[in-house]
Hints:
By secondary structure, the protein is mainly β. The chain is built from one helix and 32 strands. It is 6% helix and 54% strand.
Amino acid sequence: MGKRGKFLLLLMGMGIILIGFKIIRGGLDTGSPENRELDIIKEIEIDHRGELFCEKVKSHLIQYQGGILSSYNKKGEKNWTSHLGVLNPTIKCSPKAIYVLDNDRNQIISIDRGGEIIYRYNVGDRLEDFQACKDNYLLLQYPYKNKTSQLKVLDNEGREYSEFSLTEGRVVNISISKADNFIGINTLTMKGDIESRFLIYDMEGQLKGTKNLDDQLILGFQQDGKGNTIVVGERQVFAINKNNEVKWDMGLAPIKLFKGKPTKHMIFYSGDMDNKQWVYRNNSEEIRIIQYNGKEVARTGLDEGITGMDLGEDAIALYSSRTIFLLDSGGKLNLKHQYSSDIEKIFVFSKRELGVVTRDKISFIKIRDG
Length: 370
């Protein structure tokens, strides 16, 4: 065969590879988004005298700064304010409550969505970490001492429910679900090499199962609403039930960001850490939307790196420091907008309503129809 024939065959082969790659990557529609404007409904100036905390609880935005906890609806109207006076807080939220850990007084304050204080609990020693579930049970993790990690469960009224300890490995991540009678713990041990283990306990602190993850850390947990826990590792995601049975397992490129919508789907932002990539790829980073049954809904690359994400009932927001990407739940890109200030956080209230946090203000935004 002549050089010309070999060259044509090479071009044909490259064309097949590119077409195949486009099909694999074409699950998420990144066509031209609708040209829509953003209307600012309300803006709240940020006081820089204290560290700002913002989080979404259902359709409300929770703000804590300077000892004051406030709640706003999606129009930016204030629901309530609570003066707690905690100057060194750690704050976490469940779908039904806000928890403020006073690190100076070693006390947890539980506040419901209406702004009422449910209880105050003196944790005694300082806490390493704590997590809440949708039923408002808390899992408290105490510092590693004398080769032992102490954990305690509080019920929804702040009463001690159970307590147990781990004597092998250091605890690096925890999760709790009262509805599933489940406590998940990731531990690390050093036996020559680093060994990461996933431990399953019931709410009474009884060990039910273990899984070796080699050197891979667990980044987080989600519950699928069917009694299974979705475990997100650094390079994989899998579903496991309380009987220690793996229901499905999926390998991913190193995960940089992820977020889950209960009972619906999870979105992952991942990519090679060493920046190696095929010649025909635009980038080495990708977005993947995966249902809780392990099926992939969509997959694509973006033309710039992202720094955060949020999920709503019918929308997904991805953002970089100056760009907002808004997708529907099936992965279709509906909006790409260049923002005028550096974005620190975005919250999705609906497919047409957003909360945008910058250094100087919180903006409540409505997206015009195209």
